[in-house]
Amino acid sequence: MGRIIVITSGKGGVGKTTCSANLGMALAKLNHSVALIDADFGLRNLDLLLGLENRVVYTALEVLAGQCRLEQALVKDKRLHDLVLLPAAQNRNKDAVTPEQMKQLAYALTKKYEFVLIDCPAGIEMGFQNAIAAADEALIVTTPEISAVRDADRVVGLLEAHHIKTINLIVNRIRPAMVQANDMMSVNDVQEILAIPLIGIIPDDEQVIVATNRGEPLVLSDNFSMSGMALQNIAQRIEGKDVDFLDLDAPYDTLFSRLRRFFAR
Amino acid sequence: MDPERLRGTLASTTPTSEPGSESESPRVAEVQLHLEAEDGKLLLYLPTPSETVLEWGDLCTELQKQLEAGQRFWPPNTLVELVTGDRLLDHRQLQTIVTALSTAKLHLTRIHTKRRQTAVAAATSGYSIEQRAQILPLAQSTIAQFNLNTEKKEVAPLYLQTTLRSGAEIRHPGTVIVMGDLNPGSSIVADGDILVWGRLRGTTHAGASGDEQSQIMALQMEPTQLRIADWVARAPATVPDQFYPEVAYIAEDGIQIARASDFSKNMTQP
Predict the structure, then answer these.
(1) Any chain A CB within 8 A of the CB of B32?
(2) Structural domain of A46
(3) Is A90 close to B166, i.e. CB distance below 8 A?
(4) Among A68, A86, B140, B225, which residue carries the largest CB count within 10 Å?
């Protein structure tokens, strides 16, 4: 039986889909079989990030309506053979599926795939309820902003209410220089509020935009950027390996910045 | 046919290599809300709950979109007859339809229904009622069209003057003509041909009930995916630097795209 992990955040635009695409790819690169489910019905994006948009023939909705078999709807990745995507329908909205149906799909996939990652839509309405219905673990993605953290906190509460106990935190888009200068919440500040185990810190990186537009997730390229490396490490931690966190502060922890911090106090 | 004239770079169009090409085509036996002109009046077909999965709210949005896209083709103050089959409509829902129609300068006159409650609601609002299903209910008529190829040709083409944006889906048992663009994420499923006077960047499925003679034409062909009958093709990975009006059709080895100017000269078959 595979593990079902939902990637969620509450707030939109913090990097759920980017994390889903990259973690899916990274796990597949570590020789696990991975199925990605796009639960964002009506506003699907995961196929774009994976560069699989033009291969989508059937969607989850057609599977549920019995118009095709589950295997037919799974889009195989062109680069990694152990990765498949179950696309969401674009012409419908979140009410088109029920939590019960999402469970069916996810459970069917766990029989064949070691990891089933569900990309949750923003918000806490029907789409969110659908996405978390089948999950036994959750990854919370947040950025170091009070609004994102507030929403993440609410989501953690909801997840706990749905008996999802394994919840890990990814802090995305951190800028070490700004943290050093006390202009941005630090990972510790975020963790202090959310109080859930940290599984990864991803620095802000322009390469993400490039990768998104190309449909080639960061972890695919051979020479990793810092953010690609951070994502790769998260995948290893999901596997259960003990990997040290990247030292993002190193380039910024100069004598000058130390002095400035000293006097700022 | 001269192969050089074809943009033969369409990736893998063989039926065996694509998931969608297994004998069953990806069409849904779903009926869409649509308007049809007949003898100077318009018939508005509202699918019954058994014919559509859309909720009432979605149907209203759909109606608004169709009214907007087709507005140019009907003279103002055209009379509309509503065909609802056995769908239950209450007073308020009826009013929603009337309001939507009147913004498009159309007037509801008569309601065809099988349900007594709907008839009562309509009568109290002052519309004339046809409680016997005098007009062939939509489900029967469309199923007949799907089954009989000869009858299929008689379905009037659907003209739309609009930009189809992501998420929009048009289904029609005949030919679809769009004056406007198809954005990525939108789709057209037609039993006949598909003509796009604009940029085609979405997904189109011509000949959805199996007609391999169907064609897809566009001024600028940049599709996400093309489907004709049971065949699927992806667009080439490299985007051409110049666009011409092009035609997609089924050749011996799958879907091919030809420049429109060459296509008419070279094609021997219709």
Answers:
(1) no
(2) 3-264
(3) yes
(4) A86
pTM over 0.90: no
- Per residue in A121-130, pLDDT (tens digit) is 999 999 999 9
What is the C-alpha to C-alpha distance for residues B198 and B187, in angstroms, rounded to an integer?
Answer: 14
* B224/A53 CB distance under 8 A: yes
Element (H or E) spanning A48, and its range?
helix A46-49
Chain A (211-240) residues lying within 8 Å, Cβ to Cβ, of chain B: none
Helices and strands, counts by H and E, chain A: 12, 8
Mean pLDDT over each residue of chain A, to the nearest integer: 92
Partner-chain contact B58 A58, CB within 8 Å = no
Instruction: Read off the pLDDT of residues B18-46 as tens digits, 9 standing for 90 and up.
Output: 443 333 444 445 677 888 887 788 888 88
The answer to whether A90 contacts chain B (CB < 8 Å) is yes
Burial string for B224-256 (b: 16+ CB within 10 Å, else e) reads bbbbbbbbbbbbeeeeeeeeeebbbbbbeebbb
Measured between alpha carbons, how far is residue A87 from residues A36, B84, B102, B259 in Å?
8, 34, 39, 33
Would you call A62 and B168 a contact, using CB atoms and an 8 Å cutoff? Answer: no
Long-range contacts of B140-143 (CB under 8 A, 24+ apart): B142/B31, B142/B173
Q: Is any Cβ of chain A less than 8 angstroms from the Cβ of B169? A: yes
State the best of B21, B170, B222, B224 to mutate against chain A, taking most chain A CBs within 10 Å: B224
The whole-number pLDDT of residue A29 equals: 95
| pLDDT, tens digit, 9 for 90 and up, residues A234-249 | 999 999 999 999 888 7
How many domains does the structure of chain A reveal?
1
CATH number for the domain that contains residue A244: 3.40.50.300
Which domains are present in chain B?
34-142 (3.30.70.260), 153-266 (2.160.20.70)
Tell me whether B102 touches chain A (CB under 8 Å): no
Q: Distance (Å, rounded) from C-alpha A171 to C-alpha A140?
A: 8
Mutate to test the interface with B, among A44, A46, A48, A57 (most CBs of B within 10 A): A57
Is the pLDDT at A38 greater than 50, yes or no? yes
Distance CA A57, CA B25 (A): 10
Contacts of B234 in chain A (CB under 8 A): 54-55
Selected residue of B16, B28, B204 to mutate for chain A interface (largest A Cβ count, 10 A)? B28
ipTM for the complex shown: 0.73
